[in-house]
Each structure stands twice: as C-alpha cells, then as structure tokens.
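Figure 3 (text version): structure tokens given as input.
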C-alpha cells in the first residue's frame, strides 16, 4: 500500500488527476459557451437594438406615456405583492418549521403549487372565477366591482405566481436553525415579538432578503398570468412585459427593446444583489465557524 501511494506521488501529475483536469476544463468551457449563447448575447442584443437609433430615440421611447404607465403599474404591483408575499412566507415558514400539525404536508404542497401550475392556467382560473361569465361575475357586476381586466386581477395573478418564493427560502433555513435559541429567550422572559426580532430575524435575514429579491424580480417580470387577466388596455392594465410585447408586435422595435432593456437591467441588478447576499451569508457562516 505504501509503495503504491509513493508511486502515485511521483511524477508531474497522476493520471486520474489529469483526466479530472481535462473534464473540468471541458465542463467549464461548455458552461461558458452556454451562458454566452443564452444569456450574454441576448442581453447584448437588447442593448444594441435599444440604442440602435441613438440616445434621443431611446429616451423618447422610455418617456412615452404608455411606457411610463406600464412602468408605474409594474412598480405598483410589486409594491403590493412583495410585502404580502413576505408576510405570508414568514408565517408559513414559522408554522412549518416550528409546529407539527395535521395538514402540514398539504400546506407544503399548496406552497409549491404555483411552481407546478402554468402561469397562463393561473390567469385563466381568475378569469373563470371573476370574469363576466365566471362564478362571481354577476355579483361583482351588480356592485360595479372590476377584478378581471383591471388592476386587482393583475395583483391577484402576480400574488399567485410569487407567494412561494419567500416561504421556500425560509422553511429549510429555519428547520436547520432549530429552536434552542428561541426557547432560551422565552425561558429568560422574552416576549414572542422580542424573540422574533432579537433571535429569529437576525438568523434568517439573508434568506429573507434573498426570497424578497427573487419575489420582486418575478413580480416585475411576470408575463403569462398577467397577460390573461389584464385585457391589454393601453395606459391602464399593461405592465412592462406586456408593453414590450405590444410595441414589438406593432413593429416599434426600438420602443420594445428600450422597454426590454429596463427588464434586462432589473435582471442584472437581481443577479448582482443575489451574489452579494450569498457572499455575505457565506462570510457570516465562516466567522461563526471560526468563533
């Protein structure tokens, strides 16, 4: 055994390691090629087409009233959906990670449901429920309440597709964290809110921020579900992704790519912040291990 080990250590590089290096370089090169083809080139194309006729045309496209209305509706939808999704995610993660109860597996299944249901189907469900010919359509019409083809329908559809993100980030983190520190705080006389803000929240803050970040990106970029319930009314129910589709179909390519550049910028910012949060979380874990 020792002779064999010595034989392996002699020479520039063992054969197994040489094979591993060859495989590693091949996989890295293939990954970079795929990233370039499917991520970098499309983003570069969006920017090139957006500025193809100069900054003045780009600025005019961005400041067009329909574009500004789409941006405002997109921001409004995210501003409503992200806090609601965050609140639900924290509550769901707390219930799943801290308590055992009947229907726990059903709750987890329901949380994952939007991941398995097509967003278009989700939008269609709301149309069947709240549309003019839907279950609640006559009742809503009697009170002149508009949900489908109006802002409430867009918010409901966005909530459906975004609500798993925060919960799915926090549930495994809180299960791994355990509840010894929280029990110790309660035994020392801390209230429930004090325990949450002093113990639980600092331990889950990076996962919470990560989930909020993903939720916000999905809320601003959602197309399928929102497209079904919006009605595509210019200046009223068009979010930014829908506005990109409409302007492109009308052969306003600069306007379409100018609006798309805003979504592309959001994607880049999301990736940068995501990497930063992962780095900070890694640094805290390293510091805790050294301590």
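Below: residues designed for each position.
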């Amino acid at each position: 055994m020792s002779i064999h080990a010595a034989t392996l250590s002699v020479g520039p590089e063992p054969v197994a390691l040489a094979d591993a290096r060859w495989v590693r370089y091949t996989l890295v090169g293939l990954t970079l090629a795929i990233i370039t083809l499917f991520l970098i080139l499309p983003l570069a194309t969006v920017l090139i087409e957006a500025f193809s006729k100069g900054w003045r045309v780009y600025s005019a496209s961005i400041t067009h009233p329909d574009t500004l209305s789409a941006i405002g509706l997109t921001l409004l939808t995210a501003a409503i959906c992200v806090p609601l999704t965050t609140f639900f995610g924290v509550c769901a993660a707390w219930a799943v990670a801290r308590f055992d109860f009947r229907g726990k597996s059903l709750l987890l299944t329901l949380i994952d449901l939007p991941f398995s249901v097509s967003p278009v189907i989700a939008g269609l469900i709301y149309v069947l429920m709240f549309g003019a010919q839907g279950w609640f359509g006559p009742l809503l019409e009697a009170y002149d309440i508009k949900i489908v083809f109006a802002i409430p329908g867009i918010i409901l559809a966005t909530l459906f597709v975004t609500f798993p993100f925060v919960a799915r980030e926090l549930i495994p983190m809180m299960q791994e964290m355990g509840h010894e520190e929280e029990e110790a705080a309660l035994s020392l006389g801390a209230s429930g809110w004090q325990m949450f803000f002093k113990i639980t929240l600092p331990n889950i803050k990076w996962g919470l921020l990560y989930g909020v970040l993903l939720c916000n990106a999905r809320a601003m970029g959602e197309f399928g579900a929102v497209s079904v319930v919006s009605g595509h009314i210019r200046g009223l129910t068009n979010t930014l992704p829908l506005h990109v589709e409409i302007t492109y179909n009308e052969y306003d390519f600069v306007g379409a790519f100018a609006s798309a550049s805003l979504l592309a910028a959001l994607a880049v910012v999301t990736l940068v912040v995501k990497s930063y949060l992962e780095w900070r979380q890694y640094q805290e874990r390293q510091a805790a291990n050294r301590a």
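Confidence is low (pLDDT under 50) at residues 1-11.
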